[in-house]
Write a structure and sequence with these properties.
- It is built from six helices and no strands.
- By secondary structure, the chain is mainly α.
- It is globular, with a radius of gyration of 17 Å.
Length: 126
């Protein structure tokens, strides 16, 4: 299914919006959270229309097909980061910051990935 009529696309979470939500493209990371109504993403600035082919998947491949490892790998990574954190502030950053946050810069967040992709393409970030 490609697109629905514009009024439906503007208000509801459509198949196109849902594809973007599951995309691993830098442009699509951390976008289109709306469960039923996409209007929330429009209001909070997390909406992204499908404008390029969606690459489905994770930003980093997993080395396992075990369902528990798949379900909890990110929680384990957060726990490892907190355990190795150099300070309480850094530990809180790992827990409360966006995915990919690192103390002292060098972030691998969705926003940083969008900036890097836009710089590589010679354009302004979305």
């Amino acid at each position: 299914m490609d697109r629905l009529p514009r009024p439906l696309e503007w208000l509801f979470n459509t198949p196109s919006h849902h594809r973007v939500h599951h995309g691993a493209n830098p442009r699509y990371l951390d976008r289109n959270y709306g469960g039923i109504l996409i209007i929330w993403d429009r209001l909070f600035g997390t909406f992204e229309a499908e404008s390029e082919p969606v690459r489905f998947g994770l930003t980093h491949d997993l080395d396992s097909h075990h369902p528990l490892r798949i379900a909890f790998h990110e929680w384990a990574a957060i726990a490892r980061d907190v355990w190795r954190a150099p300070s309480l502030r850094a530990a809180l950053g790992f827990v409360l910051g966006p995915p990919g946050w690192r103390p002292g810069g060098g972030d691998d967040t969705a926003a940083a990935r969008r900036r890097n992709a836009a710089a590589a393409a010679g354009a302004q970030p979305a």
